[in-house]
Amino acid sequence: MLLVDPTKKISFKRCISDGDLVIVYERHDSMKAVKVCESSVLQNRFGAFKQSDWIGKPFGSKVLSNKGGFVYLLAPTPELWTLVLSHRTQILYIADISLVIMYLEIIPGCLVLESGTGSGSLTTSLARAVAPSGHVYTFDFHEQRAASAREDFERTGLSSLVTVGVRDIQGEGFPDEFSGRADSVFLDLPQPWLAIPSAGKMLKQDGVLCSFSPCIEQVQRSSEILRSNFTDIRTFEVLLRMYEVREGKTDCCQGDEGGSLGSLPRKRRQRSNEGSNAQEIPGSPTVMARPSGEARGHTGYLTFARLKCLS
What we know:
It is an enzyme of class 2 (transferase). By secondary structure, the chain is an alpha/beta fold.
C-alpha cells in the first residue's frame, strides 16, 4: 500500500512498525490481514509467530515460527487487500478493476465519485490511482457498511484519499457540491439508470462514467438512458483465464495430481520428428501448461460511456 502522510505525500515506508497492517502469506490461496502488535502471537498450522520479531523487518520478509515453519509478511497493496478483505457485499476483482481504472482514464489528481462502496475493493484501487493529490468520494446507503469501509481505509492508510458518505444515490443523486467537478463516476447499483442523470451533472465535459451490473437486462435499460447525454457507449464482460505451467512427463497418458496434459498421439509425434535427428526419450520431463481449475467465470458487465461535449 502507498501510505500517505497528512500533507498528502506518498511515503514509501518499507519496514514494519508496531500497529502496521500486514498481509500474512502462507500460500497463494491462504492469506490474512493482521495488525501488528508487539505483545501478540500469531498461531496457525505452521506454529506460533511472535509479532515482536516482525517489527523492524522490511515488507516481504520471511519469518519463522517456534516449530520452524514460515510465512511471508507482505505490504497490503490493493491487489492483496482485494483477496483478504471482509466480503460485506459482492466485490470486484483484479481483472474488472484494472479495466475500470483504464477506461475511466483515472490518473493522479482526479476527483472520482463512486456508489456504492460495498466492501471497498474497488475504492482501494481507485485511491491508489488518484494519489497523491486526487480524491475518491464514495457513497453507500447502508450506514453500518459505510462505517466498516471507513475503518478499513483507516487501517490501510487511505483515509486522506477517500471520503465515505452515507447516501441513497439512486433516490437522491450525488450531492450538488460535486456538480461539474468529477473526472469519473462509477456506479455499482441495482438500478443504475436512476442515478445516471445525476452522474451526468457531476461530470466535467468529456468525463467518463462506468456502471457495473451482473445482469444484461440492467445493461440494456442503463444504455437506453445513457444515449440521451452520453456517447461512446460500450459494454465489456471480463473473463480471466489463468494457466498452470509445470514440469510433467511426456509418456503419461493419465492426468496426474498436477494435471499433466499427457503425450501427443503417436502418429503426430512421429511426423514432428521427421527430417530431424531428434530422439524422443520415453518418460523425459517437459514443461506443460493447462488452464487453472480456479478460473473465475462471469462476475458482471462493465458499461462505459462518455459525457457529450456541449456544441
